[in-house]
Every structure is written in structure tokens, then in C-alpha cells.
Amino acid sequence: MFSRAHRGRPQRRRLTAAALLLIALLAIAAPAAFAGKPKGEYAPFTGCPLKTAGVSQCVYAQFTGGKLTFGSMTVPIEHAITLQGGLIVTGTEETFVNAGEGETLTKTEEKVPGGFSAGGPKSEPLTLTLELVGAVALSRGNLAEAKGTALKLPVRAHFKNIYVGEECNVGTSASPITLSLTTGTTAPPAPNKPITGSAGTHEVKEAGDLVIYKGDSLVENAFSVPGAKGCGVGAFKEIINPLFNSAFGLPAAGGKNTAILSGTSEFANAEAVLKSE
């Protein structure tokens, strides 16, 4: 006969083993389940791709003003468009890396003044959303020195209203609207005239680990814009595209379009962002 103490030992061993297994599983899961977010001055950099090998800089830019002119359409930037990601820096070369979390370029709807009527008696509200369809290129040096291309955005303009439906796009991944934005002065074809951007005010914080350009303005007015595709719903599907293109002067050759994106651009040392979590 075994004593009560002896009979309890196997059960205690099983309980101890189960507890140890649970602790081990929690230890493995903890980093993913309880991963922190950047804090303090680095709070905006939640989308920085910190897990991508070689990323040494985090990027966060928010465009809160400016305008987009495509053909005869001019759309003011009234709702913030955010660009986020990271940079792999090799010597003087900088390679942009898309956001590790969230959208690299936020899909922000902007209102098109006047709407679109499709030939009817009443115009209906029309929205435009810039959507990224290719690789971003960014140069901190060109941004700061107001020369060359500071930011290259290959995008399409996605339009929506009750006439054009949900699949009306100007530009595709194969034929994008390519915005080569500068803080310097443009050299567009006629009839456009040169316009000048600005790097804004330059501020260095966190012992040099954070650089902010407040009130910067990135401009471009030499790009071309293709015609719309995929517009129309129901019985109107066959006629909306030509009506839409005619209404807004699309396609529009270089010299008839303008992009101005104004706001704030921030760059942070990736290691400092990681340590702030």
C-alpha cells in the first residue's frame, strides 16, 4: 500500500509539467501578443517596416493641403493623405520599403468640385482617391536641398459616384499617373509654367534621431494623365467612359496637369523607433 503522499506525487508531477508547458507557450507568444507601439515623438511611425532587413530610417509624411489638377478637373486636398514606410540606405542610395503595418499610401477620398452628371440634369457627388500602383522612390537629400525628385509616386486616380460606379480609374499599374514631386522648381511643357515647392522649416529632435520638415510643399506639373477606364454602371456602362473623359479633358498631355502636396514629412532612426516601443 502506498501512503497518501506517495499517491499524490504523480498528480503533482503532471500538474507541474502542465504548468511549465503553459509558461513556455506564453513566453513564446508574448512578443507577438504584447508587442508595443512607438511612443513619444516616435508615435507616428507605427507603419515603419522594422522587421525588414536593412531598414535604417522610418518615414512618415502627411499631406494636408495642396491640389490635384488632371485635365480640366481641379481637386483640393482637404483630407489628409498619409505616406509611411522605411528606407534602406546604402551610401548615397536610398531604397523605399513599403509600410510594415497599415497602408503605405492611405486611400483618402477627396471631393471633386461640381461632381459628375453623366449628361443628366443633376450632378451627383464625385470622389477621387489616389491609390499606389507601383514602387515609391524617396530622396531625403533632394527634399532638403530643393533639387531633383524628392518623391516619386506611381498612382491611379479612383473615382466613385452613382454614375461611374466602383471601378472607374484613371491610370493603372501598367500605365500609372507618375508624380515626380520636387521641393525645387519644375520645368513643364506649355501651357504650364514653372512652379516652385519648398522644404519648409527644418527641425532636428531626439539628439538627431528625428528630423521633421514642417510646411513642406512638393510640386509637379510636367506629368501626363491617361483616360478613364472601367467607368459606368448598368445601362450606362457603354457610354460613361467617353462622357467622363470629355467632361474632364482626359487623357491630358504633359503641361496640362498639376500636383501640389503640402504638409509635414518626418524621418526617424529605425533603432530609436524600436527602442521607444
Write a short abstract of this structure.
It is built from four helices and 14 strands. The protein has 277 residues and is an alpha+beta fold.
SSE topology:
Elements: H1 4-33, E1 55-70, E2 73-76, E3 81-90, E4 93-98, E5 109-116, E6 124-132, E7 137-138, H2 140-145, E8 151-161, E9 165-170, E10 177-181, E11 201-205, E12 210-220, E13 228-229, H3 237-248, E14 258-269, H4 270-275
Antiparallel strand pairs: 1-2, 1-3, 1-14, 3-4, 5-6, 6-8, 7-8, 8-9, 8-10, 9-13, 11-12, 12-14
Radius of gyration, whole Å: 26 Å
Q: How is the quaternary structure best described?
A: single chain
Order of helices and strands: HEEEEEEEHEEEEEEHEH
Count of DSSP H/I helices: 4
Q: What structural class do the secondary elements suggest?
A: alpha+beta
Q: What is the average of the pLDDT values? A: 90
Query: How many domains make up the coordinates?
Result: 2
Name the helicity range: 10-25%
Uncertain regions: pLDDT < 50 for 5+ in a row? Answer: 1-8, 22-34
Shape: globular
Determine the strand fraction and express it as a percent band.
Answer: 35-45%
Q: What's the N-to-C terminus distance?
A: 59 Å
What is the makeup of the main sheet?
A: 7 strands, antiparallel
What's the total count of β strands? 14
